[in-house]
Amino acid sequence: MSDDEEQTEKKEEQQAEEESEILEFEFNEDGEEDLKKTLKKFRADLKQAKKEKEEYLTGWQKERAEFANYRKQEDDRKAMFSEAMRERILTRFLTIIDSFNIAFSDKEVWEKVDLNWRIGIQHIYSQLNTIFEEYGVKPTGVEGETFDPNIHESIDMVETDKKELDHKVAKVIQRGYKLGERVIRPARVNLYEYKGGEADQT
Asked: Which of 100, 122, 142, 166 sits CB 3.0–4.6 Å from 194 for a disulfide?
């Protein structure tokens, strides 16, 4: 590129810059700056800028709120997933606890087991229960308590002539468990059923 061409290009760029600056102002027919028109234009530009600012601010606030909601939903999903996994793992270990309870329930056979073995097994059982307690798992189902369909599953009925025992737990077949306030397995129970109702009514 020659020196003349470079100079011509620079002049054109300078002229374009001057024209862009001139466009900021309003001129009358004589070529003089019309302050009223310029001020009116500035006010219109300022109004437009404020409008755009509000739109951008509203959009930004909306995006921020949506992102905050998204993060909260993600945190809730992670917490739910973590809770579900914990419940699933703990539920798998319930069968081991059941095996211990079955072994301990047959007292005659249990008493015949070597004392050192019994102490060791009871220690392991105690460790398992400690872990369950640390995670908020509590057993449910006690003989004599009133039947509650939220925590009990009725397996069989046992007839009784005592009215006060009606619909109370006669025997716990399998312990139930709660994780916090949520039942992860209902207690399987036999219930007392009072059969003297007809005789009482006559």
From this structure: 166
| Sequence-separated (6 or more) residues with CB below 8 Å from residue 140 | 151, 152, 175, 176, 177, 178, 183, 186, 187
Q: What pTM does this model have?
A: 0.58
Which amino acid makes up residue 178? K
pLDDT band at 83 (very low <50, low <70, confident <90, very high): confident
Distance between CA atoms of residues 123 and 135, nearest Å: 19
CATH number for the domain whose boundaries are 138-202:
2.30.22.10
Sheet harboring 182-185: ordered strands across? 137-140, 176-179, 182-185
**Digit-coded pLDDT (tens) for 132-171:** 999 889 999 999 999 999 999 999 999 998 899 999 999 9
CB neighbours (10 Å) of residue 18? 10
Nearest CA among 133, 145, 138 for reference residue 171: 145
Domain ranges in the chain? 69-135, 138-202
The one-letter amino acid at 13: E
